[in-house]
Amino acid sequence: MSDDDAGAATEQEEVLAGGGTSGAVRVGASVRRRAGAWSPTIQRFLRHLRQHGLHWVPEPLGRDQDGRDSVSHLAGEVPQYPLPDWTWSEDVLIDAAVHLAQLHAAGADFDTTGATWQIPAHEPVEVVCHNDFAPYNMVFTGGRLTGVIDWDTASPGPRVWDLAYLAYRLVPLTDPANGDGLRNGTTRRARRLRLLCDAYSRDHDHRLDPADVLPASVQRLHDLAGFTQTRADAGRGDLRSHVGLYRRDAAWITAHSGALDGTAG
User: Fold this and answer.
1) What phi and psi, each to the nearest 5 degrees, are found at residue 140?
2) pLDDT tens for each residue of 21-59
3) Sign of the CA dihedral 38, 103, 123, 248?
4) Are residues 63 and 148 in the same domain?
5) Which of 41, 70, 82, 101 has CA 20 to 30 A from 184's CA?
6) Neighbours of 185 (CB within 10 A)
7) What percent of the chain has a predicted confidence (pLDDT) above 70?
8) Confidence band, pLDDT 50/70/90 cuts, at residue 2
9) Cis peptide before 82 (omega within 30 of 0)
């Protein structure tokens, strides 16, 4: 253990918002959480991203003296639900899409040999997905996106898997009854979805359009509902209501896809 680690061990631990299930705490300039079999892979992936110029991801710091996974703390504001009004601006929407495209471009050549992931890979494997690229895992400074956190559920998958979840959260693609969404109507949502896709594809060799994102969003939500149901059955009864919410949102997307992708006659 280094002298820095020894000093950090005496610092007070601050439980981080949203870190309850993973045990995430801030210790000085670092964030610690329970390590798993996937932790060395995630540390290596973060190192790979930073070597490719993505300094908005945490710096991997290995394990602390208690065996916890450790990364650098990214200073700034992390919005929580209900999201503040400023997070719904078009600038944030575009910023998020551009950062996601940067992630996928930088991580496309990551060597997955011997890798262990907490979340199973999704086919077709094209990149390493964050799998939870959403406002509550974004760090903002002065209203601009400056960092993305919580990488422990990253795993290989198609590009659209990540973009579909970002669209779900930030367009948003939610049933009006979902209080985490925004009552902005399908016309405005269609515009925001197009902006998101255009921003993602602007400097990217792989273009994604609303017609790609919408069915992927439905699949992503059903996958999330199944994952959440498993966690609820394993003792997280507080998550049970989320299962129905995700399935209702998936049904809403299916019912309104024509209006959202511009194919409704």
Assistant:
1) -120, 145
2) 568 999 999 999 999 999 999 999 999 999 999 999 999
3) positive
4) no
5) 101
6) 11
7) 94
8) very low
9) yes
Identify whether the C-beta of residue 173 lies closer than 8 Å to the C-beta of residue 219. no
What is the Rg, in whole angstroms, of the alpha carbon atoms belonging to the chain? Answer: 18
Token reading at 152:
């422990």
Pair (27, 111) in one structural domain: no
- Alpha carbons within 13 angstroms on the beta-carbon side of residue 4 total 10
Residues near 210 by Cβ (< 8 Å), separated by ≥ 6?
190, 193, 194, 197, 260, 261, 262
> How far is residue 91's CA from residue 161's CA, in Å, rounded to a whole number?
22
pLDDT mean over 150-163: 98
Tell me the average pLDDT across 186-196.
98
Residue 122 lies in a domain: yes
Nearest to 231 by CA among 222, 242, 219, 245: 242
**Could you tell me if residue 146 is left (phi over 0), alpha (psi between -120 and 50 degrees) or otherwise beta?**
alpha
Domain that holds residue 22: 3-36+58-72
Tell me the H-state helices in 108-149. Answer: none
Report the domain count for the chain. Answer: 2
pTM recorded for the entire structure: 0.93
CA distances 135 to 78, 172, 184, Å, are 7, 11, 18
